[in-house]
Amino acid sequence: MLNENTVAKIFESGIEQGADFTEVFVEDSVSSSINLLDQKIDEINSSNSFGIGIRLLYGNEAYYGYSSDPDEANLLKLTKNLGQSRKAGQSSGVQPFEQQAVQDIHHVAINPETVSKTERVDLLRKLDELTRRQGPEVSQVNANMAEKKRSVLIANSEGLWTEDARSYSRMRLSAVAEKGDGPQTASESPGVLGGYEFFQQLNLDELAENAAQSALRMAGAGYIEGGTMPVILGNGFGGVIFHEACGHPLETEAIRKNASPFCDKIGERVGRSILNAIDDGTIANKWGSCNVDDEGTPTQKTVLIENGILKNYLSDRIGAGQVGIPRSGSARRESYKFAPVSRMRNTFIAPGKDNFEEMLRTIKFGLYAKKMGGGSVNPGTGEFNFAVQEGYAVRNGKIAEPVRGATLIGKGFDVLSQISMIADDLELAAGMCGAASGWVPTTVGQPTLKIDSILVGGR
Fold first, then answer.
1. CB of 92 within 8 A of CB of 6?
2. Could you tell me which of 85, 96, 94 has the C-alpha nearest to residue 17?
3. Half-sphere exposure of 392 (CA within 13 A, CB side)
4. What share of the chain is helix, strand, coil (3-state, %, to 5)?
5. Closest C-alpha to 75, from 155, 20, 161, 163
6. Cα–Cα dist 139/120, whole Å
7. How many CB atoms within 10 Å of residue 118?
8. Do 158 and 100 form a contact (C-beta atoms < 8 A)?
9. Distance of alpha carbon 173 from alpha carbon 43, whole angstroms
10. Closest-CA residue to 104 (of 292, 279, 286)
11. Separation between Cα atoms, residue 161 and residue 7, nearest integer Å
């Protein structure tokens, strides 16, 4: 991808510019996608991307640049230009390269390059057919298959040299249903860090039923009456609230800027003793997993909250140094065009000992948010507003009529203390997370849980 001699010269140039630390990140990626809409293949895309990112650190100050031109003279000029922005510090010199072996725990069984486009198209058409079978009110189906392989080289002036390959596969299905009062959309988007075997192993019948039936139920639903009430939050993608309203503020990128309600709270109680939250990059083939992060640090399991006590933050090199904690293998970036920062991987609330029926029995009137949709959050305060994709009223301990138009409004830090019951039905769901270092694959998740009191917005 880039020879050792050129990389060594970049590091020597970093020394000349007075940098304390120099890093080279090389990426060669191949992406493809096929989109089926209204029973027709309307898009087939493929792309290649190659580039080199160079980062100079002066203490905790970072200077980053990138280029798609691997010419040595060009890269040395880029390094010099970065250094001229800030000449200071004392470098300890370039260390000899030490090959860091990468343990690949994310096996690719079927190389996507061995599978024809015809097979992929047939699979999408089958998924469309199964979704439309769910009812004549299903008026539109969109199925998309996306794949990406990233090959990366990470080297730094401390002697690190490591290479890794990451293959991503994801299926997106959305169904639109109409029953008089406007169309309603529901979607499913499973994905893995793995090869084409993911698509062959997908349960297409279940995928089609989940998306279509959710849309059909909501198309015939009335509207929720808003107010402050207890809410049962469904498993799987329900974890997006913890991810957005609590996960981001637990990244050192927010902590080091004093832009988080969790600053200086390690060791303090942030929830009830039943609450345990984890970010784990080591789960085999999960969408948000990795072998090493984008600084070359091996990934790990990080316990964020244990028995209601805040235990840790998610850190990269700069964040760990400023906050004074070990690196957690959480430095991530969308591509060579971005400098790495601390980001989530597979983030979830751990299973508890309660069950769904027990939760229902404790509620006279409330909301069962079976599946969450999109929303917004202020990372500095944890304030959020999330739409409920599929919801039901809860009356006298039982699930009642389906309701639409519900939103959950609150602050992540405050909501943690309102979680009073957690079931044992943990599920994880794939998503894409956007932040300072671009969009990266992340997994959210949780068991079904009960929030005693939260503001629910209605129509």
1. no
2. 85
3. 18
4. 20, 45, 35
5. 155
6. 23
7. 8
8. no
9. 15
10. 292
11. 10
Residues shown for the chain:
459
Q: Determine the average pLDDT of the residues in 288-316.
A: 97
Distance of CA 321 to the CA centre of its chain: 24
- Indicate if the pLDDT at residue 367 is higher than 90: yes
Q: Token match 């730094």: residue?
A: 156
pLDDT in tens, 172-207: 999 999 987 789 999 999 999 999 999 999 999 999
pLDDT at 97: 64
pLDDT value for 376: 81
Residue 250 pLDDT greater than 80, yes or no = yes
Cα(141)–Cα(132) distance, rounded to whole angstroms? 7
How far, in Å, CA of 60 to CA of 53, rounded?
Answer: 18
pLDDT tens per residue across span 266-282: 999 999 999 999 999 99
Cα–Cα distances in Å, from 112 out to 61, 144, 220, 253?
41, 16, 41, 35
Q: Which residue type occupies 193?
A: L
Q: Is the pTM of this model over 0.85?
A: yes
CA-closest candidate to residue 201, choices 133, 284, 123: 123
State the pLDDT at residue 221: 92
List the alpha helices (DSSP H) in 292-338.
317-323
The single residue listed with the structure tokens 């994709």 is: 389
Rounded to an integer, what distance in angstroms lies between the CA atom of residue 64 and that of residue 67? 11
Helix axes 204-219, 117-132, angle to 10 degrees: 40
Bridge partners (DSSP) of residue 166 are 150
Looking at residue 413, its pLDDT comes to 86
Are the C-beta atoms of 162 and 100 separated by less than 8 Å?
A: yes
What is the pLDDT averaged over residues 125-142? 97
Sequence-distant (6+) residues with CB within 8 A of 95 are 157, 158, 159
